[in-house]
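Let's study today's protein:

:::
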Amino acid sequence: MITLQRQLQLLWENVLDDNSDPMTITQVAQKTGLSQQSLSNLLNGHVTDPRLNTLTKLCMAFDISLDYFGYDTEAACLHYLVEYGKVGILSPQLHSIHTEGDTLTADEKRNVLAILQWRLWGTKS
């Protein structure tokens, strides 16, 4: 299960501003009207259950749907960002993986995700 903190980190790591740079806390604060301290608390995991209004403002700042925060794995969040063109510049390897992933059936995608999850669980022991 992905945490809100990690979901936000993925946004900051992958969504670029108009100059193709990662957005800063200051930029997001200006776009949302949220304080830099509030954003820092979210990014550091000090706030784990923000108000809907806060999430809505973040969605507007990053130009994403509120659906993003409903995903429960990092892979699903990254897939959303790639699918909706929110990832700044894809490396050739990530682009290839994304392209090949689009050719899989729903069952094949579930199988690949299950294998990745099993692999992840195996590395945490």
Notes: The mean pLDDT is 87. Helices lie at 4-14, 25-32, 36-43, 52-62, 74-83, 92-101, 106-123. DSSP finds seven helices and no strands in the chain. The longest helix spans residues 106-123.
